[in-house]
Design brief:
With 212 residues, the chain is of the alpha/beta class. It is built from eight helices and ten strands. It starts with 7 loop residues before the first helix and ends with a strand. The mean pLDDT is 96.
């Protein structure tokens, strides 16, 4: 499982609906950073007997400890039930935040990157991409001019999240030859246009694009 930002009952219900199994069937949970919409249920996940993988700064911010806590480091690959996981640094206002490059036992290679201003790394052989497309600068500026957002929030968004333009640049900079599908994630409720973003990504990559 990637992230634990929903309530524990919602995660348990979603697991049952998606797999027909129990939450205890989950082999492990990857946590990208300590913000509540990504980690609020980490302690409950661990209490349920599931290992949670995160960096030391993330664990410290969440005040987590115990044998179910597995500390990871950027650019140090580890194995999780036959899956190979490589964490990498992201650019966000959460110390120790990371994205994940995940390779399945069957050979699929998945990129998961959210809550980052940009991605420093480049990747080859990706088959699935889950990448943030948080905002459109034009929509954000319009909301600020309409006094719906203070300037301070605008600055935080720009410094910590990827615009759709940065997302497209990132996609173009990577090897997409084996990519089967792209999922745009972590879209802003107010500063994004999902259908426009989907169309832009499809035109830029020629790949199937989904809004998650």
């Amino acid at each position: 499982m990637i992230e634990a930002g929903l309530t524990f009952p919602a995660i348990r219900k979603g697991t049952r609906e998606a797999t027909g199994g129990l939450i205890t069937d989950i082999d492990g949970c990857l946590i990208s950073h300590d913000h509540g919409d990504h980690a609020k249920s980490a302690a409950r996940i661990m209490k349920a007997g599931i290992n949670c993988y995160m960096t030391a700064p993330t664990a410290a911010a969440l005040n987590l400890s115990g044998h179910r806590l597995k500390i990871i480091e950027p650019m140090k690959q580890f194995d999780l039930a036959g899956w190979r996981v490589l964490p990498f640094d992201t650019i966000h206002d959460a110390d120790g935040s990371v994205g994940f490059l995940i390779q399945s036992p069957g050979g699929d290679k998945i990129l998961f990157a959210t809550d980052t201003a940009y991605i420093k790394n480049r990747f080859n052989g990706l088959t699935h991409i889950m990448i943030e497309a948080n905002y459109d600068p034009k929509i954000l500026e319009e909301n600020i001019k309409a006094a719906e957002y203070p300037r301070a929030i605008r600055n935080r968004v720009v410094k910590n999240h990827m615009s759709i333009q940065t997302t497209l640049e990132t996609l173009r900079a990577n090897d997409l030859s084996a990519v089967k599908e792209i999922h745009l994630i972590h879209l802003s409720r107010d500063n994004a246009d999902p259908e426009l973003f989907k169309r832009m990504a499809q035109e830029a990559t020629g790949k199937p694009v989904y809004i998650s």
